Each structure stands twice: as structure tokens, then as C-alpha cells.
Amino acid sequence: MTGRYEDPFERVATEWNLRKVGYDNWRTLFMRPDSSRDDKFVSKYKTLSRIKIEANHTIIANVGDQLSDLVGDQNADHAERCFKVPNPFYYIPGDPVPSGGLKCMAH
Predict the structure, then answer these.
(1) Of 5, 73, 65, 78, nearest to 43 (Cα)?
(2) E strand residue ranges, 1-107
(3) Do 66 and 24 share a structural domain?
(4) 49 vs 78: CA distance, rounded Å
(5) Same domain for 28 and 66?
(6) Which domain holds residue 34?
(7) pTM of the predicted model, to two decimals?
(8) Between vectors from CA 62 to CA 67 and to CA 6, what angle results, nearest 5°?
């Protein structure tokens, strides 16, 4: 799942990047629909995508460099564990961490 907008060139480049670093056994690449450009937070799209994934799978790990990669709706993180990795190059403003924290980081 990526916050990149759905675009034929972006899709090809993203799929190529995934395969280049050894991720080539995946089934679906979720890309942000162009219609969501008016949405203020990327976390809304990512949460809806996680809900779709959870319909058929258990998300065991969620890794991201932005809070929007990790937060869910109503304190539902949609992953067994989540990991925030540092990114010194950019910050995407987004939804704050829920007051109770992220349950997927509580392990």
C-alpha cells in the first residue's frame, strides 16, 4: 500500500522498485485513487485500504515512516504490530496519534 496516487507511470515505477529490492511475491498494490486528492489526510485512504485487506487477511505488521502509515480509525490500528521507522527527509502532517496511543505498538 502506498500513498502515491494511481497513475500508470507511478504504478509501473512502484512495481519496478518493489521487484528491484526483492518484493516480487505480492498480489495487489494499493495506490491512492486520484479522486482522493481533495482529502486532507492520506490516513483516511490507508485505513479504508486496510479494512479491505482485513476482509480476507490478517495484517501481521504495518511498517511506515509517517504516522499516516500507522493510524487507523477509532483506535483500530488494523495490524497486529506496527513499526514507525525514522525518515529525516520529509514529514507528512496527518492525524494525531489517538490519546491512548497505538495498540499495535503496545507489544
Answers:
(1) 73
(2) 2-5, 31-32, 61-64, 81-84
(3) no
(4) 10
(5) no
(6) 1-38
(7) 0.74
(8) 75
Predicted confidence (pLDDT) per residue in 51-79, tens digit? 899 899 998 888 888 877 777 655 466 88
Contact 106, 82 (CB under 8 A): no
Distances from the Cα of 2 to the Cα of 50, 101, 106, angstroms: 11, 23, 24
CA atoms of 95 and 44, how far apart (whole Å): 9
- Residues 30 and 47 placed together within one structural domain of the fold: no
Question: In this model, does residue 8 exceed pLDDT 80?
Answer: yes
Say whether pLDDT at 13 is over 80. Answer: yes
User: If pLDDT is split at 50, 70 and 90, which confidence band does 107 have?
Assistant: low
> CA angle, 1 as apex, 65 and 40 as ends, to 5°?
70
Contacts of 60 (CB under 8 A, 6+ apart): 79, 80, 81
